[in-house]
Write a structure and sequence with these properties.
The protein is mainly alpha-helical and 208 residues long. The protein has one domain: DNA Methylase, Chain A, domain 2, CATH 3.90.120. It contains eight helices and five strands. This is tRNA (cytosine(38)-C(5))-methyltransferase. Pfam families: DNA_methylase.
Amino acid sequence: MKFSQIESEHPQKYPIDAQDKIEKKKIETNICINSTTQSSGKDAILYKLETAEEVDRKHQQNSDLSVQMLKNFLEENIDMNPYFLPPKLLLRYALLLDIVKPTCRRSTCFTKGYGSYIEGTGSVLQTAEDVQIEDIYKSLTNLSQEEKITQLLMLKLRYFTPKEIANLLGFPPEFGFPEKITVKQRYRLLGNSLNVHVVAKLIKILHE
């Protein structure tokens, strides 16, 4: 099993106003492009805070058929309501989120601040796969706060569960936490962890 992760910055210690970054940086796309889509960062729809190079890199990662899709690591038949991003966070940090779909083959690195901080702590999952993310972001211009929240909620963005992050890191299916360990503590314990399969291969090489 192979899965690529991208190192991210340390989570911010203080809230960051997304509007400040909009004024400083060109708004560009963060779309998860299907491997059959003939597009690149240079001609993708521009609507998020990323460079064309970042967009192109993510497109290439999602086109790598040797990497499993995220949907193969997701939990089923559990209550996901506690993991959905609340309206307040959606409104403030919408342009800073790294959004992926179950059909993506990439995510950013999950840090110990995941679930507590937004920027640079890990990707969020768009569960409304039939909604076009670029259409939602393009429609936010000149809307009231309430209208923006209504639009963003259509994406049904949620955090990955601790179990899903453990799956992505290569932990075995039977791996779990004691019930007394809170979700926040589980994120902290999993944050910045090494992939189990990568470590296993390195140890094997060292003993050969």
